[in-house]
Amino acid sequence: MIAEACGLADSLGLKTGPRSPLAIANRIKAGLPLSSLERLSKAIAPDDASFPYRFVPRATLTRRKGASEPKLTVDEGNRVAAVAKVWEFAMEIYHDEIKAREFLYRSHPMLENQKPIDVATDTGIGADLVINLLGRAAYGGGA
C-alpha cells in the first residue's frame, strides 16, 4: 500500500512530506496544489490543453492561477487523485505511456462503448470502474 501511495504522490507531484495513503488524504483535504492537476494533465493528455477543464471550469482555473498559492477544492482534489490512481494502474499494467493512453482513449464495450478516460474523469465511482477493468485486463478477466 505504501508503494501505491508513493506512485500516486509522484503522479500528483507531491515531493515533500509523508507519502502514506493517510498523508495523501490529508493533502487532498488541505487542498492539493494546482500543479497536481497540471502534472496529471501533462501525463495523461499532453496534447490536450482543455484536459484540466474536466476537473475545474476554465474561468475558475484562470482565476485560481492568479492566486498566491493556487489549490484545488476537496472535491476537485478527490477527482484528480482518483484519475491519478487510474493512470498509475494503467502504467503498472502497460509499462508504456502511449499504450496506457491508447487504452484510456479507446471506447470499451464493458463501459457501454464509452472511453475509460471519460468514465474516470466524471466520478470517483467511474474511476473505480476503470481500475476494475484494468485489473481484469491484467489478471485475465477478459477486459
From TrEMBL:
Protein name: Antitoxin
Sequence ranges assigned to domain Antitoxin Xre-like helix-turn-helix in this UniProt record: 27-84
Antitoxin Xre/MbcA/ParS-like toxin-binding domain ranges (all copies): 92-140
A Pfam family the protein falls into: Xre_MbcA_ParS_C
